[in-house]
Design a protein that fits this description.
Strand content: 5-15%
Bound molecules: NADP nicotinamide-adenine-dinucleotide phosphate
CATH class: Alpha Beta
Helix content: 40-55%
Shape: globular
Distance between the termini: 38 Å
Number of helices: 11
Strand order of the largest sheet: 3-2-1-4-5-6-7-8
Order of helices and strands: EHEHEHEHHEHHEHHHEEH
């Protein structure tokens, strides 16, 4: 591979599942991967296997995200930021920052990391990828940008669906606000994937994902990771449309209607207003 086609790719949620598989595939293709994980042992193990640097952050603690951003800003460039860390929870709990946990780890922390790295990302003309979910359509339809933390009508599935819908709206708004700075934002749904997903969620989700039942309806993390790596190595405008939400190679139709972009703009403001002490 020629030097100029090698990319520096930050993969969050890189200690397991889709992120670890994507990191393996990218390293195999000669790209420089910077791994981000939560669990020190798991993250160090994958980083050692791949021979890549790693950083640690628990997204349930925003001070970790701020430190992570400062560490990542030290790299000479970031061509791709894959905001892939996340997962479903089993009940409505607040983080030590005072925000609903599903919202924080799937959207707010990723919003913060991206915002803190904007100058670096713009200088690298980076692609910013959100790992969203079909849950955005299944459970996110009643999303209210004025209530992103699901104070009303909370269920674990709704909170997860709303946070993942939030990732898609964030992608659109990031593209709108920062596309002219050279940033290309894109979201994708990874399929239903047999990973460690759901280990912190309800008994039902754990039953579906962590018993042999999973072989009936899931795809492998390696197969799913190809959706991420296609976007990571692809050329914006040629291989994907910036601002779009994908499933495999095709755009995925979002059921939530936001024709004038006002919900995406409100959500951006709702996230920013919660982060004034950091931004
Ligand atoms: N699997 C599916 O069917 C499916 C479907 C749709 C969307 N997704 C999304 O795909 C992404 C990757 O999930 P996966 O399926 O690969 O599951 P996974 O195997 O559980 O991997 C999730 C990754 O996110 C990290 N993570 C979880 N909570 C975190 C936190 N509070 N702070 C920082 N990192 C955290 C995990 O770290 P640890 O190793 O420490 O747990 C792990 O590296 C997630 O955003 C998930 O919501 C998955």
């Amino acid at each position: 591979m020629e030097n100029q086609t090698k990319k520096t790719v930050v993969v969050t949620g890189g200690s397991d599942g889709i992120g670890a598989s994507a990191a393996r595939a990218l390293v195999k293709e000669g790209h420089r991967v910077i791994l981000v994980g939560r669990n020190p042992d798991k993250t160090a193990k994958i980083a050692a296997e791949l021979g890549c640097p790693y950083h640690l952050a628990d997204y349930a603690r925003l001070s970790d995200v701020v430190r992570l951003a400062a560490e990542l800003a030290e790299y000479d460039r970031i061509d791709v930021l894959a905001n892939n860390a996340g997962g479903a929870q089993k009940e409505r709990v607040l983080t030590e920052d005072g925000f609903e946990r599903t919202f924080q780890i799937n959207l707010l922390a990723q919003f913060l990391l991206t915002r803190l790295l904007l100058d670096k990302l713009a200088a690298s003309r980076a692609t910013v990828i959100q790992t969203a979910s079909i849950a955005a359509n299944l459970f996110g339809a009643d999303f209210d940008p004025a209530d992103p933390e699901s104070e009303e009508n909370y269920t674990p599935f709704r909170a997860y669906g709303r946070a993942k819908l939030g990732d898609v709206l964030f992608t659109r708004e990031l593209q709108k606000r920062c596309g002219d700075r050279g940033i290309s934002a894109v979201a994708f749904e990874p399929g239903v994937v047999r990973t460690n997903f759901g280990s912190e969620s309800t008994a039902f989700v754990r039953f579906c994902y962590h018993t042999p039942l999973k072989y009936l309806f899931t795809i492998s993390p390696e197969k799913s990771a190809r959706r991420l790596t296609r976007l990571a190595v692809g050329a914006p405008g040629a291989d994907f449309t910036p601002g779009e939400f994908y499933s495999e190679k095709k755009p995925y139709r979002l059921k939530f209607r936001d024709p004038d972009g006002s919900a995406a703009a409100s959500l951006w403001d709702a996230c920013a207003s919660r982060l004034t002490k950091y931004l």
